[in-house]
Amino acid sequence: MKRRKPEPESETRLKNDTEICQQLLSRYSASTAPQHSHLLATAAALRSILTAESLPLTPSSYFAAAINNLSDSKTLDSTAVAALLSLVSIVVPLIEEKGIKEAKVKEAVAVLVEVGVEREGVGVGSLSCVVKCLGVMILGFCDLEEWDSVKAGFESLIKFSIDKRPKVRRSAQECLEKVFKSFRSSTVVKEASKLVFSLFKNYMPVALTLSESRIFDESKEETLSKLEHLDVIHMLNLLKVTVPYLSVKISSKVLPELVKLLRSEFSVLTRQVFQNIEAFLVSSSDEVIGPQEENIIDSLSGYLSLGQKNPVDTVLYATTLLRITLDKLRARGSSSWMSIRHKVCGSAAGLLADEATASQASDIMKELINLYIDPKEIVINESQSLDDASQESEEANMVKSTCAVLENILNSCVGIPNEHLLGVISVLFNKLGDISHLFMKNIILKLADLMDDIGHDKPDTNHLRNCMGSAVVAIGPEKMLMLLPISINPENFTCSNIWLVPILKDHVVGASLGYYMEHIVPLAKSFKQAGRKVKKSVIGQDLQAHAHGLWGLLPAFCRYPVDTQNKFGTLTELMITSLKKYSFMHQNIAVALQVLVNQNRSVMYSKSDGSVSNGNTVKDSVSECQNVAPYSKKTATKNIKALASCCSELLHALVDIFIDSQSGKPSYIKDAIACLASISNSSVTQKVFMSLLERFQFVTGEGEFQQPKNYGDELVEEEVHSLNVQGKDVHRCVMMELASSLVVGAKADLIDLIYNFVVFIFQATDVTGHCEAYHTLSRILQEHSWFCSSRFVELTDLLLGQKSPADVATLKNRFACFHILIVHALEMNSEEENTKAFLMLNEIILILKDAREEARKVAYDTLLFISSSLRNSSCTTSGEAYQRLISMLTGYLSGSSPYITSGAVSALSVLVHNDAEICLKVPDLVPSLLSLLQNKALEVIKAVLGFTKVLVSCLKAKDLQNFLSDIISGVLPWSSVSRNHIRSKVTVILEIMIRKCGFSAVESDIPEKHKSFFKTVLQVCFFSKNIAFSMWFYFSFLKHFD
What we know:
By secondary structure, the protein is an all-alpha fold. Helix content is 70%, strand content 0%. It is built from 54 helices and 2 strands. It has a two-stranded antiparallel sheet with strand order 1-2. The longest helix is centred in the first third of the chain and has 27 residues. Belongs to the RRP12 family. This is Ribosomal RNA-processing protein 12-like conserved domain-containing protein. It comes from Salix suchowensis.
């Protein structure tokens, strides 16, 4: 086997301010590769020559010396030539702009061309160096405004651009594109374009022959075996690169010739011709494209007419080119784009049935539908037939033909159509909207047949269901049910189109409440009645389930209904009746009310007010809601008024269900109550709440809360005639849970009533109802900031007067109140409020030391919430308040109790982990904590070491440098203590500092007596991670300790 000659080193960027030979020696002296040895020897020889002639050792001097040696390349062997070319490619980019005189540039180009073109046996790598050098020299040292300056190099790049060797060819084409792109002179562009056109014309006869030969007449390999045939391919690839930069005159000559190569049947040139056509369509002006548009369209249409007889990828490519042509025609205002639109849609649609092309064809079709179909241009009278409308309107005719194509594809499908075809149909539904029922009626019926045939419960029907859902969104449930009525056969009790119910549930939007009451409800009742008549229990159960499904469409019909203000009163009567009679409707009605309230409120408060509470939002189960035009604020305001006018009756009904519910309190009922309370007149809500308080005898006849009594004989006697103690406690919890739902939208009187009930609960019981009471109070504080301000002292006294709860859920709600009160106190900064905040903070710190992980997490989270609220507050004093929080926590560090001190350290660790910049904003923080390492209490030591680990982990390396000395002197004395894993904690801290700050920075602060321990840390840190690196690192620095 013949040994390959050493290839020159690829272009390696060195520094231009350091001697070249020295840089090469530093980089390659350890290499055993032959090409590196030859390169170094060549550089050293040239350096000797330059030194002997007293020339500067600059890149330009090395370049001149190398070119001088190459000028007599016939006397050099291939190895020497390769080394010289490699050196030239390295030094040329280092020469400063205009660092070579133009005359010398021409000489150098001539030398390089002679070596690259005329010399035989030059390797691929060497030729690549020649090409890159030519590109750099033209761009860096030639006058780009003068053709004579760039001509020789440009001609050479063109020759190399069709070289038989791929690496050389690609490199030359890349350089050629950069050079052509840099030309600004029209004269230079003109001459360069002529060269490209001349090459193109030379190959046109062979290209025409190849374009006429069908690929299956002979194998592709045989067709391309002739060198001239391959050269045509390379020429077309070269042309594609230069098309954007050709002069208008030359482009106008090239394009007609290129179109001649388009044939209706695939050839070996088809892909290259398509690529060039695309380059012209994308980059050339109408002056170039215009005269050839018709020929391009006819040729591409002819290619598409053969369909899958041509390779699939090229059919897709041709379709894409037609679409680009369509874009240009439409942008120019030409009327011919409408006729082309049919061809493009037809060809793209024809590819939807084939899995290999469906995805790309789908993208093309969706783009065409969205860009080129405008339903506003289609006007159809009720008395006018679709055929008549199509004849009168080009737009209608386009839609009709597109639907016909899609319908034919659907009819030809075996089984479920693929997701791409269904996706296109969905896009067309969404685009046409309400008029879809005219143009796409047959498609809807076909989709329905498919649903009937395959069954609606199969998992692979999702795309089909979504497609039907798009139809529902487009035409609405009324027209859909006219086309596909849901019915029941009274004789055999079979159901028609019942599969449509879950689709309606997911996709109905913008419908009519009246339609639901007048058509859906009676239909549901008919199913329910039929279920009672049927003898077979299984069929009866199915019919009952279908009835429930139809009733359950209520939330769907409440998504942006068009008649809320007119029909909600009637709907309220139906809902109240259903709440009392049908338990299965409870959730449907609750969700429907939330949807109605939240959607209208979101419109009312959009833009002008972003403070809408998100506590009771219900996500729409239909993504298409975003395509429905939202209400105007005026309409939404009227809708809310209609909803609010019926709140009293609905609240009473929902509250009764909530109170009387035996199996838990459904959250959806509570959320619905909260929604209604948020829009209801506060006095109405207050009456509802007060009536319940009276019903359960929590208030006297005068409206005052009953004073709590001891559970003695008197209490037992009283409970015998009313409720037992256990039942009373249950009602307290339920009422307090209900109260939390009434907070949003409540006025001062109702808030006072709820607050008094909270106080009553705290006074009446030791534990029962406290969790709900804390939650309700936190909701009041969140939603009504005025209450916190006006009752701060009273609130804190109330809370601090209660024992810290043992139950974690209650503790969480209690701390939620603390969170808001502490933030308020710190922002106000009065002595009394700071004292109260200090007391609340004290309880949080104590819980940080709790044995239960869940309780500790509640305390950690509360500290983070407080910190986040202060840092993100819009209050002008929030920065100072944040500092006061830190000061309060550091105040605990001097306490006498290790328990409290360690808790405070843990609290500061949490804050530093969340915001490490605290250490920089409060300079005394870290020294104060590290000074605690002189403490003898192990509990404090463990906490401080934990803080230190957080500190070194979270601080940036540059900031950590400021604390290195203090940290090292603080933690190292504890490295000898193995109890409670203290030694391992110190080790971890040092490991992190070494990785972040470097060995030297840490080692310089290590006292002599701890050097032995530091060696051990190095072993643990590095030997366990990367053996090779560790060995070098460890032994390199071992001498520092000897």
